[in-house]
Amino acid sequence: MRAGCLADGDEEAPIVTVESDQVHLTNPRAGGADPGPGGNGMKYAGWPHVNGDLSSVRRGAAIFLNSLEEICGSAVQQNWITRWTSVGDDHCVLADLNIKKGALDKASEAWLCALTAFEIARRLADENDPQCGDVLVKIEAGIHRLRLNLEQKVERVKIACCDQAEFPACFLRAGDLAGSAVICITREEETAETLLGRLLPAVVDRGISILIVSHDDVSTHLRGRADILLSCCLDYLAGRPEVDPGRIGVYGEGFSAVLATDFAASDHRVAAAVCDGGLWNWARTVASVGWMTRAADILDADAVLAGRSRLVRRLRCPVLVVAGGRGTVSVSEAIKLQAECVATGKDLELAIPHTTRTPMGEIENFVTSDDFTFGWLKSQLASTPATSPWSAW
Question: Could you tell me the pTM of the whole model?
Answer without folding.
Answer: 0.82
